[in-house]
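User: Hi! I'm working on a homework problem where we have to compare a predicted structure to a textbook description. Could you give me the structure for the chain below?
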Amino acid sequence: MPVAGDDGLLDAFDTTLRSGSFASQSFSGTGTLSITGGSLSNTLASSLGGLNLSGGAIGGTGSQTISGTLAWTGGSITGTGNTSTDILTISGANGKTLSGGRVLNAVNTTWSGNIAANNNAMAISGGSVFNSSGSFVDSNTFDSAITRGNGGGTFNNLGSFTKQSATTTTI
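Assistant: Happy to help. Predicted structure tokens:
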């Protein structure tokens, strides 16, 4: 993995970050990056073919563009840059955190997989913003929540929000 001042080239390879803390200028590739632990940050524009975030953190001051699916099952998206994706899937019982002033731009989002009321919650804090510009489908089978943490956060629904079960979503 890259160190500060480096540009990381992941190419078409699928790569997994399990532990450690890595800071780079940028990273790019057409493969999928899976983060199960540790952290990766960038200071310049970066791009990935796909991102699976199940633990740890991805962030930094640089932008991140995910051309395929961003699958978020746990962990944090942090820092002051922007993260953009056309397809965001949020699932699993683990909590998710958007923090540090990060702006998450998602076109089409599917949120599912909670196994009890209010697990699988999303916390938006530190002045972060979640922009949903297309369809946001909440198919959680139990009550779910998007909460504001320390420093506040914003959820902007600029498209459609569909709740598919007879439960409550608190925003």
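For your comparison, note the following. The chain has no helices and 21 strands. The chain has a mean pLDDT of 94. Good luck with the assignment!
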